[in-house]
Amino acid sequence: MFKNTQDNQRLEDELDKNNIPDHVAIIMDGNGRWAQKRHLPRIAGHKRGMETVKTITKVASDLGVKVLTLYAFSTENWKRPHDEVSYLMGLPVKFFNDFVPDLIKNNVQVKVMGLIDQLPAQTQKAVNDAIKDTSQCTGMVLNFALNYGSRLDIRMAVQKISQQVADGQLDVDKIDDQTISDNLMTGFLGDLSDPDLLIRTSGEERISNFLLWQIAYSELVFTDVLWPDFDKSVFQKMILEYQHRDRRFGGIKTSKLAGLKLVNRGETN
Ligand code: FPP
Prior knowledge:
Elements: H1 5-14, E1 23-27, H2 31-37, H3 42-63, E2 67-74, H4 82-105, E3 109-113, H5 121-133, E4 141-148, H6 150-166, H7 177-183, E5 197-200, E6 219-222, H8 232-244, E7 252-253, E8 262-263
Parallel strand pairs: 1-2, 1-5, 2-4, 3-4, 5-6
Antiparallel strand pairs: 7-8
The structure holds farnesyl diphosphate.
Residues 28-33, 46, 49-50, 53, 72, 77, 88, 91-92, 95, 144, 202, 227 line the site of farnesyl diphosphate.
């Protein structure tokens, strides 16, 4: 772990600025345990987690990440106690109230994917206002997964595609991977819809119904750090780990000396 300024500088120097992942997705986990360790109510962890979102948004944008997708509320999170769900639904209101001017200053565009129309009215308004207020920004896309579930995403894509077939707009034989990607909730991201790097915090190593189609070739990096403690140096360390991975997308490297040139022979690994 990088503990002091000198180590932070070393980490900064080690990062290859030409190999920053375009799309980073994060499962922000451990807010409850962070609070529990301090004998605080769980919502104190979410409040602190929201501050981490602000920090990491700025760091990612400064590094040149093009899309940052954050898993803020899953379709399964409704099962939590009512008070906690209410608090989580209020967080986007607070977050966007505080932070939209900074997002605009940093040229960050807000997007939200999930079943937005099922959210409380004031959450919907906060989200829609933030999307509108940052719509002219051309830098990083800050994409919140809110009331999102990947199986839901896939099911809805299947329904949309089926409808196009039923309406005679699409030939069944023409359905390919791109058709599916285009019809998922990340479709608006075009070429950037698949994360290059997926991070999960808090020591849990599972995907929890997040971007199941889109992470087919993502690098997965896990850290024991709880989300409220996640900071610039931990994030940089995750990116460094990504940079040390050998991404082959099912192909092989021609040789070590050939650098990143890929030959796709159809192997799957
Ligand atoms: C998982 O931790 C975290 C969540 C379900 C909520 C994540 C939300 C935030 C980080 C704040 C979002 C901010 C905005 C702006 C929407 P957990 O509660 O499951 O932690 P635990 O596993 O330790 O209990």
